[in-house]
Structure formats: structure tokens, C-alpha cells
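Entry 12.
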Amino acid sequence: MADDFELDTDDLKRRMDGAMANLRTEFASLRTGRASASMLEPVMVDAYGSMTPINQVGTVNVPESRMVTINVWDKGLVGKVEKAIRNSGLGINPQLNGTIIMLPIPELNEERRRELTKVAAQYAESARVSVRNLRRDGMDQIKKAKADSSLSEDDQKFWESEVQDLTDSYISKVDDLLEVKQAEIMQV
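Predicted 3D structure (C-alpha cells):
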């Protein structure tokens, strides 16, 4: 019955890729002093009785490096979109021009930049924890197979090193992404 164990490393990779994609999404929502349509992704508007993302009630554009515009399709929702942006905690003061909402992006001061790098570090740590949890899941599968006698000790060591190598590579990717994001935030 030995050697019939095969760890699904593709599944582990897929799940770790999911943690990386989540980290990239969280990093995209951090304001770096440059205008970006993705900074509005977490903002939800109470439209037609349900919470709706801004990009589903209007067209989001970035006409210049310090300006985001939202062309709201339904005139009745302009006030709700403006209110949602004000209450979002983005620190942006919307300006109305008919159905177009303009969002001038202010320059970040040094203190705010440092706060944002700390937030980025927290996001990265959450991603590391997710990757480590997936590592633990893989190790648990290996230990269970060993306990069921379907895995030799040599095979157990091989699979454990495979899972550890995979984990190390994803932790390294998280660290690289964090370094790039922190440099982007601190850039004046």
C-alpha cells in the first residue's frame, strides 16, 4: 500500500496564487499620491436598494495623474456616489460637475506615506499568514498519509521539503511585492 500517496501541489499553488491575487488587490487600493481607478474598488454605493461597486453605476476614468473622474449614468445616484466617496475614508473631497464627479488626488505628506507603508506591511503579513496556513494544510495531509501507512519516511521527507520550498517561494514573492509597494508609496 506504500507509495500511492500523491500530494496535490497544483492545488496548493492555486490556493497560494489566490493569496497573492488578494494581496495585489489590497495593494491596488492603497493610495500612492497618483490617481488610479482601482483605488475606488472598495467603495460601495447604495444604488437601487443594494450595495453596488462604483464602476457599476458610472464610468471611472483617470484623465491625468492627479485626477479621477466618475461619469455617473443615473442622475439620481450622483448624490449617493458622492456620499459613498466622502464616507469611504479615502481622504478625497469629491467635486460635482453635473453627472461627473471629479476627485482631485492631493499630494501625500510624509506622515501619511509612513502610515500607508505600515498598512501595506499589514496586508503583506496577512498574505504570509495565508500562505503559512496553506503550508500547514499540506503538511497535515502528509502526516495523515504517514499515519495511514500509505507513505514511507523518505517520501514523507520529500513531500515536506516540496511543500516547504513552495511556501518559501511564495513568502519571497510577498516580500518582493511589499518592497515594491513601499518604494512606490515613499516616492515623492
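Annotation: The radius of gyration is 23 Å. The chain has four helices and six strands.
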